[in-house]
Each structure stands twice: as structure tokens, then as C-alpha cells.
Design brief:
The chain is of the alpha+beta class. Helices cover 32% and strands 30% of the residues.
């Protein structure tokens, strides 16, 4: 069984407060984009889980979210046969794009099908929360409001058609470090998430892009000036907006003109310190 695990971006990311349990209360508009890892699942005669990947630096044990997702389901339902996971990574790692969470979501969906567990998406989302805060959204996909620690989800109308350019610098960022450094109680300027939701309901791309904002950028961007430089260059090529996704360092720009997005992609690939640059489109829903 072969499944595609798409990346996500945050059209809007607000942090409301730090909770007593150490997690942060968030309010985000999430969007799936057509950039994928590939997850291949094979049932084996020998019990246990094996995992192989095209990225030598990734763990192939319980420290990998895809492995953890398979283990969670197989232990709960007493699956006696084994599972081999072949993970082809194309989404950059530690990039603010939820690649690992999306891989875990694909494994949950695929393992349920492969072993005939009959779990609904809602069943899988409940289990996905145990793996990571982004996993339930990655099962849902499409355009959605995420609240709580990211697990309280409300589907939203699909984002209007556009071109999205994603640029991942050669360095990575620790989500934990960024959230630790954030002083949520000192934030005075918050994204207009409610206004963005209304713009989505009206199919108003300008209304959406004018409200794109990410409070985590207040922490990440000063540490990494390249983030601001990438945003400025995307805007110079005609991006309606350009902001950071998640805790970074990936920057995305939303373009009405796909040719302008491709011209910007070519220019960004020439920059020193550039990692990967992708042109993608928003997805209306998850497609495993």
C-alpha cells in the first residue's frame, strides 16, 4: 500500500497563552499543500516493525513518528503479523511543514486499512493526538481552524486557487526552542484569525493574504535574518504575502500569477544558503 503524505503551512498562527501543563494554547488556520512524502506499507510474516528511509540521519525506530504510529495501532489491536514501512522523504525535516506528523498520519490511515481495523478518521485523530499535536490535523487535511494545542479542529471552506512558493533555508529550527523562547503573555499584536476565517468563507483571496501572520516569527526571524530576506524577495516578485510557516525556518509566498512564482523560485535557488524551493498549490482535502 502506497500513500502520499502532504506538507502543511500555517496561513495564520496565534499563541494565546502558555498552559499550566507546559503546552501552548494556539489558534491557527492550517492549509495542506501539494508537496508530498511517500509512505509504502507492506505486511510481513515476521512480527514487529521495520522502517527504511532515504534520509540516513532519520531514526528508524520508535523515535520516528511513522514507526510510533504503527506501533500504537498494532499494540492496541494485537496485530500479530509484521509491518515494513518504506518512507521516501521529500518534505524538508525540522522545517515548520509537519512532514513527520504527516508521515505518522499516513501510517495510521494505511495500517488501519492494511490490517482491516475499520477505524474512522475521527478514531484515528483521537489516536494521532497521542503521537503529536499536528497529527490529527494531518489526518483531516485541507483548510482547518486548529485550537487547543492544535488538536481541536474545525474544517473550513477550501482556500481559493493560487500558487504557493515554499523556500527552506539550509539550516533547521527546533520547534521546542522557539516555543520555549516565546513570551506569550507579552504578545500585543495578534493575527486576525476570525477575519481570515470570514475571508475563506467568502472565497476572498485578498482578504486571506492580508491577514496572514505568524507570532512565532517574532522569535525565529531575529535569530535568522535570512527569513526576512526571503520574504522580501518573494514580495519583490509579486507575492501577495510572504511569511514563515510553523516555527520555521520555511518561508512561503502566495502568488496569484504562477509564472511569477516560478520566476521567484529560479531566483531563490541561486541564493547562498538556500536549501530547497518548491512550488505547490493548496489542497482542498487530504488525499491518501
Amino acid at each position: 500500500m502506497i500513500l502520499r503524505a502532504p506538507a502543511k503551512i500555517n496561513l495564520g498562527l496565534d499563541v494565546l497563552r502558555k498552559r499550566e501543563d507546559g503546552y501552548h494554547e494556539v489558534k491557527m488556520v492550517m492549509q495542506t499543500v501539494a508537496m508530498f512524502d511517500t509512505v509504502e506499507l507492506t505486511e510481513t510474516r515476521e512480527s514487529g516493525i521495520t522502517l527504511e528511509t532515504n534520509r540516513s540521519f532519520l531514526p528508524v525506530n520508535e523515535n520516528n513518528l511513522a514507526y510510533k504510529a504503527a506501533s500504537l495501532l498494532m499494540q492496541e489491536f494485537g496485530v500479530t503479523s509484521g509491518l515494513h514501512i518504506r518512507l521516501q522523504k521529500f518534505i524538508p525535516v525540522a522545517a515548520g511543514l509537519a512532514g513527520g506528523s504527516s508521515d505518522a498520519a499516513a501510517v495510521l490511515v494505511g495500517a488501519s486499512r492494511l490490517f482491516g481495523l475499520g477505524l474512522t478518521p475521527q478514531d484515528l485523530m483521537v489516536r494521532g493526538k497521542k503521537i503529536g499535536a499536528d497529527v490529527p490535523y494531518c489526518i483531516l487535511g485541507g483548510t482547518a481552524l486548529a485550537e487547543g494545542i492544535g488538536e481541536i479542529l474545525t474544517p473550513l471552506p477550501a482556500m481559493p486557487d493560487c500558487s504557493i512558493l515554499l523556500a527552506k533555508p539550509s539550516f533547521s529550527v527546533s520547534t521546542k526552542e522557539i516555543y520555549t523562547a516565546l513570551r506569550a503573555d507579552e504578545l500585543t499584536d495578534h493575527p486576525d484569525i476570525d477575519g481570515m476565517i470570514q475571508a475563506l468563507r467568502e472565497g476572498d483571496l485578498d482578504g486571506i493574504t492580508s491577514r496572514c501572520d505568524n507570532v512565532l516569527e517574532r522569535v525565529t526571524a531575529p535569530r535568522h535574518p535570512m527569513i526576512g530576506q526571503l520574504e522580501e524577495e518573494m514580495r519583490s516578485f509579486g507575492a501577495a504575502v510572504s511569511i514563515m510557516s510553523g516555527s520555521g525556518p520555511t518561508v512561503f509566498g502566495i502568488f496569484k500569477d504562477p509564472d511569477a512564482a516560478l520566476a521567484c523560485k529560479a531566483a531563490l535557488l541561486e541564493r547562498p544558503g538556500m536549501g530547497k524551493v518548491f512550488a505547490a498549490n493548496p489542497m482542498a482535502g487530504r488525499r491518501f
